[in-house]
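Homework-ish question, so no full write-ups if that breaks the rules, but can someone show me the predicted structure for this set?
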Amino acid sequence: MSLLNSITIFVLAVFIGFEIISKVPAMLHTPLMSGTNAIHGIVLVGAMLVAGSADSTLEQVLAFIAVVFATVNVVGGFLVTDRMLEMFKRR
Amino acid sequence: MTTPLALSQTAINFTYLVAAVLLIVGIRRLSAPPTARSGNVIAAIGMTIAIVFTLLDRDIDKYWLIAAGTAVGTVVGVASARLVKMTAIPQMVALFNGVGGGAAALVATSEFHRLAPASGHLAGDDIGAMLFSALIGSVSFAGSLVAFAKLQELLPGRPIVFAGQQAANAALFAAIVACGALAGATENGVWMVLLLVGALLFGMLLVLPIGGADMPVVISLLNAFTGLAAASTGFVLENTALIIGGTLVGASGTLLTILMGRAMNRSLANVLFGAFGAAPAGGAALAASTDGKSYREITAEDAAVMLAYANRVVIVPGYGLAVAQAQHAVRELADLLEKRGVDVKYAIHPVAGRMPGHMNVLLAEANVPYPQLFDMEDINPEFPRTDVALVIGANDVTNPAARSAPESPIYGMPILNVDEAANVVVLKRSMSPGFAGIDNDLYYNPKTAMLFGDAKSSVEKLVAGVKAA
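A: Not a homework solution, just the prediction itself:
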């Protein structure tokens, strides 16, 4: 994948990111922050790729911590967002 | 050993496309109340797809390392998300954000270590992206930990400032950039380590001078930072899922930060460099001038009678309500009053509590009917017609200094105009100032009566009083 491809994807994603949350009521600010917080846990994909091909002990240690951190981010992030939103379900 | 199931990069990229669509649909649904919960689930499904199919990448051969890491992370993540109290959720979000940033920095560092010594000819864009994720990820990690410590009250919520702080920050940032340039030019790990240390320090220094009341905006900003750090690792690893997922958060998080700031009538620059609540010269004079003012105390019985015979009551909840877990008692009080024919409304300030939406979540937990909750713009015109404004553990969002005192640190922040009601009853533990560390003139208003005590027990006393009235 060329650098230009990466930049293209990046620029388009910037526009989408801005567009999709244009009108958010204040009461959803926190759940939305928490939900997007879980989504940057996608870095787990990077952590797994690095862990899976780590050679030296140092790399393995770094990658292991990265996998732990990113997993906490994903799992904790989605669960805590769900707990917040669960409160809204009844009227 | 490579898995026999290994997929081609094209096939994996296709699953990333599916994951990206689900993430986008998920965020979109998260931003509207009726669809929010399903949006979170859809985003989680998208994430799972990206993660599971990444495991089929041919370059992965150390599954034991991944299994061990995800197992530990899952246990920690599930436990902390399940066990945390509703009131502590803001700092939990800060913590989850911080570890995400830390993961991005570690990924970049590990890649640097793997690639730098081998060739000595790292491509410029790769090294640039590595240094960027190491820098931004570390800033987000350290900044989020400080935000956590402030919200958890391990550190004082007040801004921590020292002379020459901004000059020191600028110098530190210049040093970090220099380390980055040297790391790129020499591909020597020492510079990378110095960059990481500098970035951690910078992250702490960035958040320390920011007052507790601004923490939600700061966490949102650091959330966007972590997104960009994750996207940047995507440039290093040439991975579309990382670029798209990280960038979506970077962009939407930036916009969300601006929206939150706007709800508080504060610009981002003001939040970052304004040292909100630092009690500058004018603020100190203001605080001193309140000495000698008198306030009026009221008993729970008297307050209950006042409420029981009112026509219109507006309840203003704040962080004190959350801390005391008084939401169920408040609902009981409101139900009792309604039965007596009192019109009860709730006034929700956009940043009441520690985070926007904090009060909505708590009151929803106590099954408060949604139509009784009013936003600031809708309730403010009602206060002049209100008999009793019942302020439960809210402080800074009711401070009239925001309207009238240009020297006050919170001047210009939109507030709930509770002082326009005929009577104000404030439930509060003591006369100590609020989270922003500013005294509140409302308490010295002749219309205001103070009912001291824990919010929950005070509200329970009011319930008993209304029943007896």
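Now go work out the reasoning yourself. Hint: Residues 115 and 282 of chain B are 55 Å apart (CA to CA).
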